[in-house]
């Protein structure tokens, strides 16, 4: 149970109800962070617009690289909701979710490609208590993904840090997207 209860549909205005309906169709359930933030409709609108724009703009990196980096942030911060939702997204993208169990040993695990290892290490460096990113690390990422790719990766990792910390602070925990309890949207 989050520290601030989710806003019920019966308490919501017409715009928030519309957002709930769209999210329910897209994900099979209203994401709980959305329902908690709905207490502040202005920030909810801003968040939805931002997330949609980021989703539309993030096309430079391979999906597997981006999603693994974001997932790594969720595990580092300890956001069980983000881990749950991120696993569901990877499953729907056709990615191998069984290897997520090996993410702590990514540096030596054959389950991860060179590109994935670079992105996960970058997520680690950006998600530590104190950012530990080095010039050499960014230069190597730029050689691998190009300048646009590095910016996209950095933005996605920073955004997931924000999401995970917001959810953790508000006590939002896993919702059952991975188990199928929340996500009733069929796989593509």
TrEMBL record:
Residues 56-124 form the Carboxymuconolactone decarboxylase-like domain. This is Transposase fusion protein. Transmembrane segments: none annotated. InterPro entries: AhpD-like, CMD-like. GO terms for molecular function: peroxiredoxin activity.
